[in-house]
Design a protein that fits this description.
It contains 11 helices and 2 strands; from the N terminus they run H-H-H-E-E-H-H-H-H-H-H-H-H. It is mainly α and about 300 residues long.
Length: about 300
Amino acid sequence: MKSYKFIFSVFISAFLAASCENAEFLDRSPYSSTAPENFYSNESQMRMALISCYETMNTHKIPGIGSCQRGSYGQGLIYLMNAPCDDVVGTASSAGEGIEMEMGTFDESSRCIREFWKVYYTGINRCNTLLAYIDGIETISEQQKTQFKAEARFMRAFYYHHLAWNFGGVPIVTDYASTGEEPRSSLKDVYEQIILPDFEYAYSNLQIGLIPNVSVDKYVAAAYIGKMCNYLAACKRYGTGAAFVAEQPLNDFAWVDEVKMSQRAKEVLEDACLNSPYILNEDFRVNFLEADKEDQYKECLMVSENVLSG
């Protein structure tokens, strides 16, 4: 047996030595390559870019990180967004992941926190990339460009809204080539410079989305404006976080005009209720059944669905 191993190792060494003698192919340039400079050039490619803006919402992987479902609606946000409410009962899992959210023992090193931050800023970066390239594509009409911008800006506001909701003031990044060195901005700046104008732009410019059963529309934007404005108005009225402003001055809600916010919420939500095609299903259970997709789409303004895998 040892002699066979020796012969095999000699064969492999000789093969590798012979292979390296004709390795000029390693210096050849590839026939084609994909890079930001040559990819965002037509409508088909921009649709792919737009899909990637939505995909981050429930992704399981992002480039450079690999598995990251703990930071998206694919899994992790179930813990992060629902753990503090009465709908979730904490119990130890086999790996112990998520329990820190349910028990309130999390910190900046917790996987849910770290991956949520990475995933949602990846989503913001994808939106910023689309917005940076869309105006330079001559084969797309101005009307279509506005549609692309509206959907990308909605998703950027969506990601920022979730970040601000959980962390307060966060870095404002509008350049896809950012090095990630932006400082934290105030909660006021995050809402007034990004979230409010992006949602309002989407509401003013969207009708039917570009991607069937995926894209948001005018009334989804209306619902998010209403939700956001009601949230801000309530935080101002009831003094949310006021006791901690000295320690966290970036997260002050004193800037909010609660009357104006409530009025805006009333306007857009009335529009959504009276004019949108969405209706409440008579049987609430169909919203949770896999076989009732058509009925779910009648009621649910925005759905994050996981891709089935074997």
